[in-house]
Amino acid sequence: MAMKEEKVDEIDERMLEGFIIDSDWLAENYENIRTKHLEKFVAVKNKKVIAESQSIGELQELLKKQGVDPRTTLVDFMLPKDTILFL
Length: 87
Prior knowledge:
Blueprint: H1 2-28, H2 30-36, E1 41-45, E2 48-53, H3 56-65, E3 74-77
Antiparallel strand pairs: 1-2, 1-3
């Protein structure tokens, strides 16, 4: 059982590393990506925008059609400049 847990930990660590890399890439390229994909959800994987949609549900379907698991993909919404969100 310990061997299986170790493999799961390795997979989780790689997924986390991928999210960090993609998140850093998105932050570095945010203005350019926002301009191209304004007011849309974007999916980022391996430092690329791999899908976009105005609907999060449609984005998930697009990812599934590409064989990409939405749960392991960085997704963000490209807000207009100077937009303030109250959460």
